[in-house]
Design a protein that fits this description.
By secondary structure, the protein is mainly alpha-helical. The chain has helices at 2-15, 20-32, 39-51, 76-107, 116-120; strands at residues 18-19, 55-60, 69-74. It has a single domain (2-107), classed as Arc Repressor Mutant, subunit A (Orthogonal Bundle). Helices cover 64% and strands 12% of the residues. The radius of gyration is 22 Å and the shape is elongated.
Amino acid sequence: MRRLVEPALLLLLHDSPLHGYGLINGLRSIGLEDYPIDPSAIYRILRDLEKGDVVVSAWDQRSAAGPPKRVYRITELGERMLNAWVRDLRETARVLQSFLDAYDERMKPKEGALPKLFRRL
């Protein structure tokens, strides 16, 4: 799932800067609620993205509730990477749909054909 989490995080950051907890909640809002993602893995991914200059972070000192939070923002490079990921995901979705269509067509019972089990008897 990591390869899908990365573009999902960038998509969320495209909308607005967010702290880690906001990103984790945001993943649920874009369809990843059924895939349990360890919060520590999210922070590792964010650190990797930051090392690659895909996102940047800063401490938000204005937070009245609790300690300061690290807020992440997508960079111009991150926007380009998000666009490239989406192009690749669209192509992957197209190929997967072609495969599923071919599978469905081949698995349809043939009219008048007996199931294989009965042909052997």
